[in-house]
Amino acid sequence: MNLYWKYMLMLFKSQMQYRTSFFFLAIGQCLTPFTVFAGIYFLFDKFGQLQGWSFYEVALCFAVTHIAFTITECFARGFDSFSSLIVTGDFDRLLVRPRGTVVQVLGSKFEFARFGRLILSGVVLAWAVSHIGIDWTMLKAIALLLMIASGVVIFTGIFILAAAISFWTVQGLEIVNIFTDGGREMTQYPLDIYAKQVRQFFTFIIPFACFNYFPLLYILGRTEQAFYAFIPLAGFLFLIPCLLMWRIGVRHYRSTGS
Amino acid sequence: MIQVEGISKTFLVAKRPPGLKHAVKSLFHREYTKVEALQDISFHIPKGEIVGYIGPNGAGKSTTIKVMSGILVPDRGSCTIMGHTPWKDRVAYVKNIGVVFGQRSQLWWDVPVIDSFELLRDIYRIPQGEYSSMLTLLTDTLDLGSLLHMPVRQLSLGQRMRCEIAASLLHSPDILFLDEPTIGLDAVSKIAVRNFIKTINREKGVTVILTTHDMNDIEALANRILLIGKGTLLYDGSVQGLRGRFSTKRTITADYRENTVPLQLPGASILSWTPDRAVISVDTEQLMMAEVLTQLSSQVELLDVAIDTQPIEDIIVQMYKEYQL
Question: Where are the domains of chain A?
Answer without folding.
Answer: 2-256
